[in-house]
Amino acid sequence: MLIVEFHPYFQQSSEFHKVCRNAKIVLQAYCSMGGSAGKNSLLNDEVINRIAKKHSISAAQVLLRWAIQRNYAIIPKSVTAERIKINFDVETELTKEDVDDINNIKHKEKFAWEPEVIA
User: Which residues span the domain enclosing 95?
Assistant: First the structure.
């Protein structure tokens, strides 16, 4: 298993996905819902919220389901019992159009630590 930052604003390259798939490496996402609840939060993204409204689910559920449909293992975290309960309900299947719309979000942003600063 390989744990990597993965969300619509930081999707990793298709080559990375191909290498991992061919090596049978399971990918686990962190920062699945982005960073804090600031203005650039994924939970506020227009595309994510349009899809959430379409399926009558939360933005968090859209993000988690999208990661699952992209074959990532996810472990969402929350400090509230209600959100934890909601995060477990990711049964709604996103359409190919939904997944494509999320895959094509143009905004790029990394929410976790920057390797250039650490190394």
Answer: 2-117
Token pair of 92 as six digits: 């709604």
For residue 28, is pLDDT > 60? yes
Q: What is the CATH number of the domain that holds 80?
A: 3.20.20.100
- Rounded to whole angstroms, how far apart are CA atoms 106 and 119? 28
Q: In the predicted model, is pLDDT for residue 59 greater than 80? A: yes
pLDDT for position 56: 95
Contact 48, 54 (CB under 8 A): no
103: its two tokens: 């895959």
Please state the domain count of the chain.
1
Residue 91 banded pLDDT, cuts 50, 70, 90: confident
Nearest CA among 1, 11, 45, 35 for reference residue 113: 35
pLDDT of residue 101: 98
For residue 30, the surrounding DSSP H or E stretch is strand 27-30
> Among residues 34, 57, 47, which one has the least CA distance to residue 101?
47
